[in-house]
UniProtKB/TrEMBL annotation:
Lineage of the species this protein comes from: Eukaryota, Fungi, Dikarya, Ascomycota, Pezizomycotina
PANTHER family: CYTOCHROME P450
Domain of life: Eukaryota
Protein name in the entry: Cytochrome P450
GO biological process: secondary metabolic process
Keyword Hydrolase recorded: no
Transport is among the record's keywords: no
Transmembrane segment boundaries: 18-38, 50-70
InterPro entries to which the protein is assigned, alphabetical: Cyt_P450, Cyt_P450_E_grp-IV, Cyt_P450_sf
GO molecular function, one term: iron ion binding
Cofactor(s) the record lists: heme
Family, similarity comment: Belongs to the cytochrome P450 family.
């Protein structure tokens, strides 16, 4: 192939001849692989040198080594981190993924150090925006104008107790619709049942009965929650300037659009000042958001994407956590079912589940906390992105641009902290006779040894609602059904990058109690 360097048309012809045999998919693939290589270089320059590495070749080759390590990590992420922990001398491990390089704090003392850092140095919102690609999957405002956090800490949390009766009503209706009263042992798809029930219960207090029982809205909300997770993993592989275009090609954008369409009439009524049946201002999420939103956010599109984003927060983690807990119950129903059921029955008020009932269930609290410990959700919890240099007490430095997180899967199974950590013990945290002045730890309590809901400066503000919902649903299921796994079956969690997800297809046997 020959062309005249002084002739621009010759260069164009040469490029055209080179690209002609290739399809657009091949061109995009080459561009994608090229970006991954550049991404590895960029992240390699932002990781400390004195940290144990995982899966890197013995002989370092610029670009190639990090890519090889990423491919090896994808094949077996858990074993990779195990190897890194064995090699590490300072509680820090460097991993490579297709999204770049990250530092894992595999030692609880290192975890305690970095989560205390101010956001001006190690930023939690930057970490969340990166992990979930929030500005693209949920909306720019959700990632950068986080006024909704105050709404979660304030009116949502404050209304948990007074709105318990309507949450109970919705959970009962949902289980009636999805499980019914099977007189014979009946297989039920557990994950989808819990996801739909969580969506109904949360949206009963978010948007009311008009939408919380709307099949299209609920299905869209649950599908959107799953799409955010998957879309984020895809988008993290691409440069920022491409993400705005690429996200439009992913299902997550369609779900956002559908959510906005369904929410628009309700939001418009509120913006127009429509009152409730008693002539008072509505007491639900849409009104709380309108009251708290800055002027730029008081529009239908902005408010709708905020409601959808809070649906993701409400549905995804709660569903995964509670499904895993029910799998643990179904695996050993005779060991835990009777004791948990008896505890609920002993605390009913006039035969009903109330908010007071849910506050008096220490065995259930222990079971849920143990499930959160044992069924940890991944290898990169509490991600922080370094805006400035951060120095650990041993002198190890995280340079600006570095990304650090902690592997809950391993820290929750530390043998120095937990006896027989590889065994599930549902009553591990139950104290039948607590010492005066002490309280048993619940799912709400975070520390360096238990961080299902984060820890430090930024624990999950929605954990109070999530735990309340789980206890409410758990109490109903214990009273109404016997639950067990099918013979010769067990949950098979799967991995997406550094995140572990519960088995979403497994059916569990339900039978109505007499």
């Amino acid at each position: 192939m020959v062309f005249n360097a002084d002739d621009g048309s010759g260069l164009i012809t040469a490029v055209g001849q080179f690209l002609m045999p290739a399809s657009w998919s091949q061109v995009l693939l080459l561009a994608f692989l090229g970006y991954i290589l550049l991404n590895q270089v960029r992240h390699y320059q932002k990781t400390p040198a004195n940290v144990a590495t995982i899966n890197f070749p013995a002989v370092y080759i610029p670009l190639i080594s990090s890519w090889i390590a990423a491919i090896r990590f994808m094949k077996n992420p858990v074993e990779s981190v195990c190897d890194g922990m064995a090699k590490s001398k300072n509680g820090l491990v460097r991993i490579a993924t297709l999204q770049g390089e990250f530092i894992l704090a595999t030692d609880r003392h290192k975890l305690a150090e970095y989560i205390k850092a101010p956001d001006s140095i190690l930023n939690a919102q930057d970490g969340s925006n990166d992990q979930q690609q929030i500005p693209f999957t949920m909306g720019y405002g959700v990632g950068h104008r986080t006024y909704h956090t105050a709404v979660v800490r304030g009116p949502i949390t404050q209304n948990i107790i007074p709105k318990t009766p309507m949450m109970l009503d919705e959970a009962l209706r949902s289980f009636d619709d999805l499980i019914g009263t099977p007189v014979e042992e009946t297989p039920i798809a557990l994950y989808s049942t819990i996801a739909m029930t969580v969506a109904r219960v949360a949206n009963r207090i978010y948007v009311g009965t008009e939408l919380c029982r709307n099949e299209e809205f609920l299905r869209n909300a649950t599908d959107y929650a799953e799409a955010v997770v998957i879309s984020a993993e895809v988008l993290r592989n691409f440069p920022e300037w491409m993400k705005g275009f690429l996200v439009r090609l992913l299902p997550v954008t369609s779900y956002r659009r559908q959510g906005r369409r369904l929410l628009a009439p309700l939001i418009q009524d509120r913006l127009d000042g429509k009152l409730d049946a008693n002539g008072e201002k509505h007491n639900d999420l849409i009104q709380w958001l309108i009251d708290a939103a800055p002027p730029v956010e008081k529009t239908i599109p902005q408010l709708a994407e905020r409601v959808m984003a809070l649906n993701v927060a409400s549905i995804h983690t709660t569903t995964m956590t509670f499904t895993a807990a029910l799998y643990s119950l179904a695996a050993e129903p005779t060991k835990y079912g009777p004791a948990l059921r008896e505890e609920v029955m002993a605390n009913l008020e006039q035969g009903e589940i109330t908010a007071a009932t849910l506050s008096k269930l220490p065995k259930m609290e222990s079971f849920l906390r143990e499930s959160g410990r044992f069924n940890s959700l991944g290898l990169m919890a509490m991600q922080r992105n370094a805006r400035k240099e951060f120095r650990f007490s041993d002198g190890t430095v995280l340079p600006p641009g570095a990304k650090i997180g902690s592997p809950s899967l391993f820290l929750h199974r530390d043998p120095e902290v937990f006896e027989d950590p590889e065994m599930f013990n549902g009553f591990r945290f139950y104290q039948p006779h607590p010492e005066p002045g002490t309280k048993p730890k619940t799912m709400l309590n975070t520390d360096v040894n238990f961080h299902l809901f984060g820890h430090g400066r930024h624990p999950c503000p929605g954990r109070f609602l999530a735990v309340h919902e789980m206890k409410l649903m758990f109490a109903i299921l214990l009273l109404r059904y016997d639950i067990r796994l099918k013979p010769d079956t067990k949950p098979q969690p799967f991995w997406i990058g550094t995140m572990s997800l519960p088995d979403t297809k497994l059916e569990v046997i339900f039978k109505a109690r007499k």
